[in-house]
Automatic annotation (TrEMBL):
Domain GH10 per the UniProt entry, residue ranges: 32-330
InterPro entries given in the database record: GH, GH10, GH10_dom, Ricin_B-like_lectins, Ricin_B_lectin
Disordered, as annotated region: 334-367
PANTHER family: BETA-XYLANASE, GLYCOSYL HYDROLASE
The protein's enzyme class: hydrolase
Alphabetically ordered keywords of this record: Carbohydrate metabolism, Glycosidase, Hydrolase, Polysaccharide degradation, Signal, Xylan degradation
Matches recorded under Pfam families: Glyco_hydro_10, Ricin_B_lectin
Gene3D superfamilies the record matches: 2.80.10.50, Glycosidases
Presence of the UniProt keyword Cell wall biogenesis/degradation in the record: no
Protein name stated in the entry: Beta-xylanase
Keyword Endoplasmic reticulum included in the entry's annotation: no
Composition-biased stretches (Low complexity): 334-360
Organism: Dactylosporangium salmoneum
Family under the similarity heading: Belongs to the glycosyl hydrolase 10 (cellulase F) family.
């Protein structure tokens, strides 16, 4: 999202004067259970509620007080964009980005990186290069910025606004380097930081019947079918008089999510802060399990790039507006996903309530069967070596596929080796290791079929279904690729 205004296309199709998804918003939650801030209310259903922050405004006490109180996810408004982070080739500047990152993390907030590759707000020196030289500059930029923030961020908007309104590719200087430039950006990003969720971000993709929405959807579907690493889609959700809340908005979110990616509303602002539209977009997110959170693009109306339209939840003096209350009520009315016995994903991916501990006969073992693949968790070549990474493989009943779940929450194979997480972050390898009783070898068998690590709170996860597909840790969301049965 640029700091400067830009013209929005008028989106055709049914636009909601009264959207079906907002019906539940009128429910007022029990005051004893209701959270009093947006971030806390969103967290009750495993989501976040964030805002965009400008480093230059952090010295404004009203601004900083509201931001620190209300939100639990922060996006740098301009400070992590290409022109800010690499003003000269090979010379990176993270001072303003780090200022926002440090401010947020010191307050327990997570941070979303925005953005790595974009046709706008490019370093001036990008204008003097093209073709393979520009392609390499993009790759070097992604590697340089992600190396600095490696392991620190929850999400990265890898590519921003790469489509035209009709669903074709935007004819930018990056597009001129070859139609595969987006794929190259995502593969580069995954190699640079395996732990962060990688997102595509765009505006005017909220209406399911719109050409641009279909163009982005088809790209994501293609990426997932070919194993291109992409974890989430960001719908900017800039609603104006011409692109208001569509009646099919929830359908759009659900259809993107069905591809196996998270969805998020990343830059929300609404002309005149329409209460019905704010409530409706919030409820649509709540109704889609893989809608992980909402970010408004600014704190107060006076901080907005659309300040003349009064589009945010706080007025210029920092007072809560009616739209704030409608959002808070919707968030508080959502079904909670936390409980004293639940295992919560560390990045808001939902919770899983442990089911009763399975029992096994003395010396017996069972298979761990993938719901999506129909294949078993397998130790390659029946190895007994510490550090051997487990995989999916055709079930064969051999000892290298026989697991016993113990009273100590261990998953044992061969009687003395344990399923072991080599780390706690997204993408951490799952291996076998001599049983040692540590929490990285303890697992919760959850009622929704997921298996989550006691140490990490993340779930066993596979990217594919074929023989040899390796098992890893990843944020829990309960999809088929994270569900297993012990039998």
């Amino acid at each position: 999202m640029a700091a400067r205004p830009r013209i929005r296309a008028l989106i055709g199709g049914a636009l909601a004067a009264g959207v079906a998804v907002i019906g539940a918003v009128a429910m007022i939650p029990d005051a004893n259970a209701a959270a009093s801030t947006l971030g806390a209310a969103a967290a009750q259903s495993g989501r976040y509620f964030g805002t965009a922050i400008a480093a230059s405004r952090l010295g404004d006490s009203t601004y900083a007080t509201i931001a620190g109180r209300e939100f639990n996810m922060i996006t740098a408004e301009n400070e992590m964009k290409p022109d800010a982070t690499e003003p000269q080739r090979g010379q990176f500047n993270f001072s303003s980005g780090d200022q926002i990152y440090n401010w947020a993390t010191q307050r327990g907030m997570k941070v979303r990186g925005h953005t790595l590759a974009w046709h706008s707000q490019q370093p001036s020196w990008w204008g003097g290069i093209s073709g393979s030289t520009l392609r390499q500059a993009m790759i070097d930029h992604i590697n340089g910025v992600m190396a600095h923030y490696k392991g620190k961020l929850a999400y990265w908007d890898v590519v921003n606004e790469a489509f035209n309104e009709d669903g074709s590719r935007r004819q930018s200087n990056l597009q001129a380097t070859g139609n595969d430039w987006i794929e190259v950006a995502f593969r580069t990003a995954r190699n640079a930081d395996p732990s962060v969720k990688l997102c595509y971000n765009d505006y005017n993709i909220e209406n399911w019947s719109y050409g641009k929405t279909q163009g982005v959807y088809n790209m994501i579907r293609d990426f997932k079918s070919r194993g291109v690493p992409i974890d989430c889609v960001g719908l900017q959700t800039h609603f104006t008089g011409g692109s208001s809340l569509p009646s099919n908005f929830q359908t759009t979110l659900a259809n993107f999510a069905s591809l196996g990616v998270d969805v998020a509303l990343t830059e929300v602002d609404v002309t005149n802060a329409s209460t019905s539209q704010y409530a409706g977009l919030t409820q649509a997110c709540i109704n889609v399990p893989r809608c992980v959170g909402i970010t408004v693009w600014g704190v107060r109306d006076s901080d907005s790039w659309r300040s003349s339209e009064s589009p945010l939840l706080f007025d210029g003096s920092g007072n809560k507006k009616a739209a704030y209350t409608s959002v808070l009520n919707a968030l508080n009315a959502a079904s909670p996903t936390t409980s004293p016995t639940a295992t919560t994903s560390p990045t808001g991916g939902g919770t899983q309530s442990p089911s009763p501990t399975p029992t096994t006969g003395s010396g017996g073992g069972g298979r761990i069967l993938g719901a999506q693949s129909g294949r078993c968790v397998d130790v390659p070549n029946a190895s007994h070596n510490n550090g051997t990474r487990v995989q999916l493989y055709d079930c064969n009943g051999q000892t290298n596929q026989q697991w016993t779940y113990t009273s100590s929450k261990q998953l044992q194979v061969y009687g003395n080796m344990c399923l072991d997480a080599a780390g706690s972050g997204n993408g951490a390898a799952i291996q076998i290791y001599s049983c040692n009783g540590q929490t990285n070898q303890q697992w919760n068998i959850n009622s929704n079929g997921t298996i989550s690590g006691v140490q990490s709170g993340r779930c066993l996860d596979v990217w594919g279904t074929g023989n040899g597909q390796q098992v890893q840790l990843y944020d829990c969301w309960g999809g088929a690729n994270q569900r297993f049965s012990l039998s």
